[in-house]
Specification:
The structure holds two protein chains of two kinds.
Chain A: E1 2-13, E2 16-27, E3 31-36, H1 42-49, E4 57-62, E5 65-66, H2 72-78, E6 80-83, H3 95-102, H4 109-122, H5 124-128, H6 139-151, E7 157-161, H7 169-184, E8 188-193, H8 196-202, E9 205-210, E10 213-219, H9 220-224, H10 227-233
Parallel strand pairs in A: 3-8, 3-9, 6-7, 7-8
Antiparallel strand pairs in A: 1-2, 1-4, 4-5, 9-10
Helix pairs in contact in A: 3-6
Chain B: H1 2-31, H2 38-55, H3 60-83, H4 91-113, E1 118-119, E2 129-131, E3 136-138, H5 140-162, H6 164-174, H7 176-181, H8 186-212, E4 214-215, H9 221-234, H10 239-259, H11 265-279
Antiparallel strand pairs in B: 1-4, 2-3
Helix pairs in contact in B: 1-5, 1-8, 1-9, 1-10, 2-3, 2-4, 2-8, 2-9, 3-8, 5-6, 5-8, 6-8, 9-10, 9-11, 10-11
The chains are: A alpha/beta, B mainly alpha.
């Protein structure tokens, strides 16, 4: 069953139409990549799904339930987490405080402690630096914190926006490894990436966006060998 | 000795400024707006206490409780009706709205209570404390004001650092969008901030009028603007900054009254603000506004 279904979504910024009627599905347990150039509407799509902006028309179904008009903070409770572009960690708080904010919607102290333990296992560096002020972490560590923070809500679906942006190549590889591990733990991943090559290498399926429309979709491996994709996004 | 008594009254006045400044600074930090109607909430609190204690003859403690309840409700209502619809609007629009709310509250009070000064019966009816063999007399209101301010500071700091709602406030003040992604209800958090700030304004109003015993519909504007000065002085958005700024401002005002000129005291207070803004635009404890991208 599809965990997420997007139908004829249209989003406007004032009079400018950013998303021009897109539809796609994310199946339970998949990694789905949304790729495309700057301004194609990838981030807007994620923001609409996670309730940060409202769609003008169209609908979003999560686990079969329509969630198009449900505000973002309620969606977190329902199991949708979002790792935003630019990480947006709380830089004046400590690493641990950031992680605890991630568990804001949960009340069971024992369960939160268990999740914290798994997040520390996934990101040992966060445990080492748990009392450090988050703003002083390196870019890669901040990205890990943003991902760990999202995992603290114990999501079923995690949306990640440009997780590799601005990171050194070593960190990029590490981040993509971690995304795969998160996925193998059973979390469905919706991944927005400019680094199309990397994204397609870990995704099951992908959708290509161009100026607010889906122009191509399919199996990630097939798309990687598609001539138009190669030419436009894989710089070959 | 007179220097000491002057210092004590400065700390007491400063405590009132600090309590008001906390409201300014919290609302600024979390809702990113200057609530210029905050001073008039003080006035409403004082009138609520006045009505209960002087008009209805009920016990002072009930006056304080009613004042806090009325102001909390008023603060949340004003936020809901006047500020929330402007969430996405320019800060200038919100500022003008706040000034409008300020005039609205003042004129409503004028209609109900008239412009004649009312005698405010102090909610503290305890004898003054005599120190140093009777040479130094500290009124009970002064002591209670300072103690209240310390208690408020302690409670607020614990609330923000130790509770989930308090941490949510910090998160909203830093990044509203990211806070939403944590599952924090941003509108609810802003409303809570207004509730706390307004409750503090009510306490400040009762203490201020207990110390100065007159009450008019304009009573809130002067302490309001000075508390705003204190908040900027200490670093707007910073809670310890509001506390320190308030106390220092109160001391400066009382010392200026005593040693320079009582007529120039207000001018001196605002001159201090101008100097601080020139030398250190972010205030004593203010954060520098360079953001890491």
């Amino acid at each position: 069953m599809a965990i997420l279904e997007v139908r004829n979504l249209e989003v406007f910024y004032g009079v400018i139409q950013a998303i021009k009627g897109i539809s796609f599905d994310v199946e339970q347990g998949e990694i789905i990549a949304l790729i495309g150039a700057n301004g194609a509407g990838k981030t807007t799509t994620l923001h609409t799904i996670t309730g940060l902006i409202r769609a003008k028309s169209g609908s979003i179904f999560y686990e079969g339930k329509e969630v198009t008009r449900i505000p973002g903070d309620k969606l977190v409770q329902m199991g949708i987490a979002h790792v935003p572009e630019g990480r947006r960690i709380f830089s004046s708080m400590t690493v641990l405080q950031n992680l605890k904010m991630g568990a804001y919607t949960r009340n069971d102290k024992k369960e939160i402690a268990d999740t914290l333990e798994t997040v520390y296992q996934r990101f040992p560096r966060l445990e080492e630096r748990k009392n450090q002020v988050a703003g002083t972490l390196s870019g890669g560590e901040q990205q890990m914190l943003a991902m760990g923070r999202a995992l603290m809500s114990h999501p079923k679906l995690i949306a990640m926006d440009e997780p590799s942006m601005g990171l050194s190549p070593i960190y990029v590889n590490e981040i993509f490894d971690i995304i795969q591990k998160i996925n193998s733990d059973g979390v469905t991943v919706l991944l927005v990436e400019q680094n199309a090559k990397k994204a397609l290498s870990i995704a099951h399926r992908a959708y290509v966006l161009e100026t607010g429309k889906i122009v191509l979709s399919g199996d990630a491996g097939e798309l990687m060998n598609d001539d138009s994709v190669k030419k436009a996004y894989l710089s070959e | 000795m007179s220097f000491l008594s002057c210092l004590i009254s400065g700390i007491s006045l400063g405590s009132i400024y600090a309590i008001i400044a906390l409201g300014y600074t919290m609302v600024y930090g979390i809702a990113k707006m200057l609530n210029f109607a905050h001073g008039d909430i003080i006035m409403v609190g004082a009138f609520a206490a006045y009505t209960i204690v002087s008009t209805l003859g009920m016990p002072p403690i009930l006056g304080v409780i009613v004042a806090v309840a009325v102001c909390t409700l008023l603060g949340v209502t004003v936020e809901r009706i006047a500020y929330k619809p402007l969430r996405g609007a320019s800060s200038l629009a919100v500022l003008i709205t706040a000034i409008g709310v300020s005039y609205l509250l003042q004129n409503l009070a004028l209609l109900i209570f008239s412009a004649n000064p009312q005698k405010f019966q102090s909610v503290v009816n305890l004898p003054a404390l005599k120190l140093a063999g009777g040479e130094l007399s500290v009124s009970a209101v002064t002591i209670i004001t300072v103690v209240t301010c310390l208690v408020v500071m302690f409670c607020l700091t614990s609330f923000i650092n130790k509770t989930k709602k308090g941490q949510a406030m910090l998160a909203v003040s830093e990044d509203r969008g990211a806070a939403t992604l944590m599952g924090i209800n941003v509108n609810g958090t802003i409303a809570l901030t207004f509730a706390i700030g307004s409750a503090l304004a009510a306490i400040a109003g009762v203490l201020y009028c207990s110390a100065y015993d007159t009450l008019t519909p304009y009573i809130g504007s002067m302490p309001g603007i000075k508390a705003f000065t204190a908040a900027v002085f200490g670093g707007i958005g910073s809670i310890p900054g509001a506390f320190i700024g308030g106390i220092i401002l109160g001391i400066i005002e009382q010392l200026a009254k005593k040693y320079i000129s009582s007529q120039l005291a207000d001018a001196i207070v605002f001159a201090v603000l101008i100097i601080v803004l020139l030398v250190r635009p972010s205030g004593i404890l203010g954060k520098k506004t360079n953001e890491k991208v």
